[in-house]
Structure formats: structure tokens, C-alpha cells
Amino acid sequence: MSNAVEVKNLVKRYKKAERNAVDDVSFSVSEGEFFTLLGPNGAGKTTTISILTTMLTKTAGTVTIGGYDIDKHEKTIRERIGVIFQAPSIDMNLTAEENIRLHASLYGLYTFMPMFSIMSEAYKKQVLMLAELIGIKDALFDPIKTFSGGMKRKLEIVRGLMHRPAVLFLDEPTTGLDPVSRRTLWEYLHDVRRRERTTVFLTTHYLDEAENADHVCVIDEGKVLLYGTPRDMKDRLVQEYLLLDADDRDGLLRDLSAWRTQIVDEHARPLRIRLRNNEQAQEIIRAAGVSFSHLDIEHPTLEEAYVKLIEKSTAETPATV
């Protein structure tokens, strides 16, 4: 499988800066993959995605998008990618549909016509379908000046999906969206990935959006802290727990003592037991001589692993004077 995005030893240093904003960053994203770039504010995420989308020049390193070198094929790359930036980039003097129509015409998708009613049927069908899906169909012909921040974000998402990009870059795409709109958007994006093998490259502060990513890359102060699957990240950084309780608390504690389990607090209800693996949980449950009044497994989230990683990185970074 070819790589949709290939980044090797990427460096970006701004003029008069004391350190690199992006410092020897390397990663790859396979075709059709869901990839997430994570990091705190100022980590270098936006700088990285700006370079990958040809909006910013790099200082050193190599970048290819769909096999095209970013230094040699900038125009071709721009035609193959879709970008939804965190900062709005829409014309406030136009209606929502006029913004979409202008964008589609500039990309050469449809011949520009001065009115929506005389645009091609294919264009009208696509615009109305996306607008309904994202939730702006009723405001499609309203001036942008009347839109809330969330509505403007929805418009940008519709516009970014119009040309069916091979690689879709999403920089905080759901900021300002309500929970229902967020869920609807992600259902659509995952469907697009399945049907058209679109590569999705995400940066987000909503860590639940990255739980289903194929790979996650975490950067801080311009450097890669961790690259792997969400499962790898959680296995390395956080702990799973077996949650148990019984009416016969003394009997339960005796059983657990025989298994030399690690109980976090013997007075807590339910008991939280550190697990080495899922097999250990099954062994304890099968061997217990008491009836459980509570039984569950506490699975760590990607957000918990991410917070642990950033805290660890901050603690290991020497203070500057």
C-alpha cells in the first residue's frame, strides 16, 4: 500500500526564533488511513499541517503527498487535497451557496454560472446533499453575515468536501459544532473513507475523535513524543482495572489475596484491581468463590493516555531561565 503522506526529518524555524517550531519530525500515513496528529497548544501541529497543505514553506526535510514532492508539485498537491482549517476562510460578502459555488468553480469541478438555478444538476444535487447532511440546508442561501460560528464551520466542511479530495486535512474541524452535528459529520467522514478510500489527516482537541484512528502521532515543542496506534499508546501509558465487589467482602478479599492481585484501595467500593492483561481478569473471575454484586472492567481512554504522556514530557523538560 502506497503512502498518502510521507514526512521525513521535517524542520521549520521561523525568523528570529530561538528554537525550531517543528524539529526533525517524521511519520507516514497510508492511503485510506485515518491519522491523527495530537499535541498541546504551541506544539507545532498547525505549523506541520500548514506545510503539508502548501500554505507554509519548510526549512528542511522532505514531504510527499500522494507521491508528489511538495517542493516540485505544489499545484498538483493542492488539487488533490481538501483542507478545513481552524480559522475561518470564507467570504463574508457572499451567501453560503455562493461560497461553495465559487470554490467548486476555482477547483474546476463545475462551470461557474451566475445563479444557482442554472448550475448543473450534478452540482445542485451534491450541494444540497452535503448541506442537508451537515445541517445548513435551510440557510444555504442566507448571507454569511447572519451565520453563527458553528454554522460557518459547517459551511467550510461542505466546501472542503465538494471536490472529493484524496487527502482531507482537518484542523480542529468540529470546533463550535453541537454534539449531534459532530456525530453526523464523523459518520459521513468514515463513510467517505470506506467508499472512496479518502485519507483523513486530523488534528483535534477532542480526544474521543481520535479513538478510532489507525495511527496517532503526538508532538510537543516540535518533537515527536510517540507514534503508534491508540491501543499502543494506552498500553504504554495507562492501566486497565478490574472492578469487583461482593456482599461477602471478606471472602472476596481472601480470594483476591490468594491471587496476589494489586488492589488500589481495600476500603473502596467497588474494589479497583490493577490488571496485567485480560487473561488475568478472566482467571480471577472464574476462580472467585463468592458471588459478585459488581463486575466491570475499566478501560482507559486515549485522553487519559495523552494527558499522562504530556505530563511526563513536561516533567522531563528542563526548566529554562
Provide a short characterization of the protein structure.
The protein has 321 residues and is α/β, with parallel strands linked by helices.
Would you mind describing this structure in some detail?
By secondary structure, the chain is an alpha/beta fold. Helices cover about 35% and strands about 25% of the residues. It contains ten helices and 14 strands. The strands form three sheets. The protein has a six-stranded mixed β-sheet with strand order 6-7-8-3-9-10, with helices on both faces. The protein has a four-stranded antiparallel β-sheet with strand order 2-1-4-5, covered by helices on one side. Strands 12-13-11-14 form a four-stranded antiparallel β-sheet. The longest helix is centred in the middle third of the chain and has 18 residues, at about 180-195. The mean pLDDT is about 90.
- The largest beta-sheet arranges its strands as 6-7-8-3-9-10
Q: Main β-sheet: number of strands, strand sense, barrel status? A: 6 strands, mixed
Total strands: 14
Q: Compute the CA-based radius of gyration.
A: 24 Å
List keywords for this structure.
single chain, 321 residues, alpha/beta, 6-stranded mixed β-sheet, 14 strands, globular
Topology overview:
Blueprint: E1 3-12, E2 22-30, E3 34-38, H1 45-52, E4 60-65, E5 68-69, H2 74-80, E6 81-84, H3 96-106, H4 121-134, H5 149-161, E7 167-171, H6 179-196, E8 199-203, E9 215-220, E10 223-228, H7 230-237, E11 241-246, H8 249-258, E12 262-263, E13 271-274, H9 278-287, E14 292-298, H10 302-316
Parallel strand pairs: 3-8, 3-9, 6-7, 7-8
Antiparallel strand pairs: 1-2, 1-4, 4-5, 9-10, 11-13, 11-14, 12-13
Helix pairs in contact: 4-5, 7-10
